[in-house]
């Protein structure tokens, strides 16, 4: 069994993660901006349409926001490993539905990207979309309203020696499955 030593995850969170009112505001702002009007900013205190920004959760004294620390704590709890190194950056993106995550994993033992791809292809609830020749990888649009989580951009981390690192890109409809749980469960499948 592989041990994860460190996980670096950046989440790209859709409007739906903040609720129906946020989705409505994104739609309204999009129309307003396209019409040359000043956007309505009730849910988010800044323009959301055609923009992205740090997650709107309160920022803590350590510089992380509450959403990022929730991801760190949930990962350690789900893996039952209080010592695993986890860092997160959570970003709001102007997408209606389905979150995306860029995940970098560091393992104690080597894991070849082809072996990782095979493990993920066999995992229940996961679909691998990893077509380098066609530059086709997961997108929030294609996983919206679906139960499966899509994984792609599966590749060795060139900054780590000996196949100890892996980069993956994950998309899932967080209304059906939470963002933190997505990253953790995908990494668990590789263990």
Describe it for me?
This protein is α/β, with parallel strands linked by helices and 191 residues long. 28% of the residues lie in helices and 25% in strands. The protein has five helices and seven strands, in the order βαβαββαβαββα. It has helices at residues 20-34, 66-79, 113-122, 140-143, 179-189; strands spanning 4-13, 53-54, 85-92, 99-107, 126-128, 149-156, 165-172. A seven-stranded mixed beta sheet has the order 2-3-1-4-7-6-5, covered by helices on one side. Helix 2 (66-79) packs parallel to helix 5 (179-189). The radius of gyration is 17 Å and the shape is globular.
User: Would you count the extended β strands for me?
Assistant: 7
Radius of gyration, Cα only, in angstroms? 17 Å
- Broad shape: globular
Structural classification: alpha/beta
Figure out the total of helices. Answer: 5
Q: How much strand?
A: 25-35%
* Contiguous runs where pLDDT drops below 50 for at least 5 residues: none
User: What integer is the average pLDDT?
Assistant: 91
Oligomeric state of shown chains: single chain
Helix residue percentage: 25-40%
Key descriptive features of the protein:
single chain, 191 residues, alpha/beta, seven-stranded mixed beta sheet, 7 strands
């Amino acid at each position: 069994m592989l041990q994860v030593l460190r996980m670096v995850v950046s989440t790209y969170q859709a409007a739906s993660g903040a609720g129906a009112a946020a989705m409505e505001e994104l739609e309204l702002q999009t129309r307003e901006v396209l019409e040359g009007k000043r956007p309505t900013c009730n849910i988010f205190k800044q323009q959301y349409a055609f923009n992205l920004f740090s997650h709107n959760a309160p920022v803590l004294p350590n510089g992380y926001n509450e959403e990022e620390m929730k991801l760190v704590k949930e990962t350690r709890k789900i893996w039952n490993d209080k010592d695993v190194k986890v860092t997160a950056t959570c970003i709001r993106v102007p997408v209606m539905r389905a979150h995306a995550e860029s995940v970098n994993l560091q393992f104690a033992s080597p894991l070849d990207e082809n072996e990782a791809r095979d493990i993920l292809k066999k995992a229940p609830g996961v679909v691998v979309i990893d077509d380098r020749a066609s530059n086709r990888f997961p997108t929030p649009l294609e996983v919206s309203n679906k139960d499966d989580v899509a994984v792609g951009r599966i590749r060795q981390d060139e900054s780590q020696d000996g196949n100890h690192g892996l980069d993956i890109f994950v998309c899932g409809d967080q209304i059906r499955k939470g963002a933190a749980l997505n990253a953790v469960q995908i990494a668990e499948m590789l263990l």
